Amino acid sequence: MTAPGGAVLAADRAFGRGGVSVAPLAFGAAAIGNLYAEVDDAAAAEAVQTAADAGVRYFDTAPHYGLGLSERRLGAALGDRADVVISTKVGRVLRPAVSGGSADSEGFAVSADVERVWDFSRDGVLRSIEASLERLGRDRIDVVYVHDPDDHFAEAMDGAFPALDELRRQGVITSYGAGMNQSEMLTRFVRETDLDAVLVAGRYTVLDRSAEEDLLPACLEREVSVAAGGVFNSGISASADPRPGAMYDYAPATLGVLDRARRIAGICRDHGTTLPHAAVHFPLRHPAVRTVLLGMRSAQEVRDDLDLLRNPPPEALWADLEAAS
User: Fold this and answer.
1) Whole-structure pTM value
2) Per-residue confidence (pLDDT) for residue 309, from 0 to 100
3) What residues does the NADP-dependent oxidoreductase domain cover (predicted)?
4) What is the 3-state secondary structure (H, E, C) of 119-179?
5) 60, β-bridge pairs
6) Are 92 and 119 spatial neighbours (Cβ–Cβ below 8 Å)?
7) Percent of the chain with pLDDT over 90
8) Is residue 65 among the annotated active site residues?
9) d(C-alpha 82, C-alpha 178), whole Å
């Protein structure tokens, strides 16, 4: 079918080395795991199906998101569709909670009947993948990321990456990589392992371009595909007019960050566009970035995000932003 937005959602961008292709817009499924607020089953399913029917082909989830809820909802909504790419993550194994029924302490509005345990070992990866396959209702996974190994570099190198390499050879997964909120360690993984892709959150945005100093050049050199997440830096760039109290990287923005965001928003207005519009398109200008991952919790959010992708900002905007940086 023809997707709203036309060619902008053509799934013609190679992602990894296994023959997987994605469109410029990808569906981040943390929100349908009840991130910060509850989403009912029907609304979650409608969001996923609206995105898939509109041409979104890449859906990213993790056991961490809602203690498995995101994976279960995504699997149920997509069913046996073969025209989609699914990524999930390893590093947090879910096990029955010692005292179940309490509220989750990591930002998801779910009952903590299970708990997360950090585990980047080979055995942990295999158990995590087996459980994810069951929750997703799939017999294989397209992309698997090592998730947030900031304090577990050695364990990831010795356990997780060799295990994922083995699973790739066996055909259980198509590609593997790492997903983090920093670029420095991701760059090490790109240079020291045989991963296919990385998901970098918040480090290549209109407000934080740090990944272009280390990670993105390494990815171009090693032919590693990049998914850019966190393009709104926790919310501040999701508004055309950032105000005091806006969130930046999971905390209230400092006055300096707020001032910079407001100056960028003003430049966007001068070019007849908005800060959110620029925030979504900015990462896609880099040749290493194959897709932008946006969190979506409703069909309306899907439609709003599709609208942001429909037409790029005027080319002159980027030169003015560069001059102001």
Assistant:
1) 0.95
2) 92
3) 24-322
4) CCCHHHHHHHHHHHHHHHCCCCEEEEEEECCCCCHHHHHHHHHHHHHHHHHHCCEEEEEEE
5) 28, 87
6) yes
7) 92
8) yes
9) 24
Amino acid type, 257: V
C-alpha pair distances (Å), 146 with each of 64, 155, 172, 192: 12, 11, 16, 14
Assigned token pair, 192: 């020291």
Averaged pLDDT of the chain: 95
**Distance set, CA 144 to CA 125, 167, 211, 247 (Å):** 10, 10, 21, 29
Residue 13 near residue 23 (C-beta atoms within 8 A) = yes
Token pair recorded at residue 26: 């990808």
Virtual torsion, Cα 62, 66, 70, 71, nearest 10 deg:
50
Q: 281 Cβ partners below 8 Å, 6+ apart?
A: 308, 309, 312, 313
pLDDT for 5: 41
Q: What are phi and psi of 42, to 5 degrees?
A: -65, -45
Quick: pLDDT tens for 227-240: 999 999 999 999 99
DSSP assignment letter at 291: E
DSSP state at residue 108: B
Q: What does residue 174 show for φ and ψ, rounded to 5 degrees? A: -90, -45
Give pLDDT, residue 9. Answer: 72
Under 8 Å between Cβ of 190 and 198: yes
Tens-digit pLDDT profile for residues 97-126: 987 668 898 999 999 899 999 999 999 999
Residue 181 CB contacts under 8 Å (≥ 6 apart), including other chains: 148, 150, 200, 201, 202, 203, 230, 249
* Contact of 198 with 177, CB cutoff 8 Å: yes
**Cα(90)–Cα(40) distance, integer angstroms:** 26
| pLDDT tens, residue by residue, 43-100 | 999 999 999 999 999 999 999 999 999 999 999 999 999 999 999 999 999 999 987 6
pLDDT, tens only, 134-150: 999 999 999 999 999 99
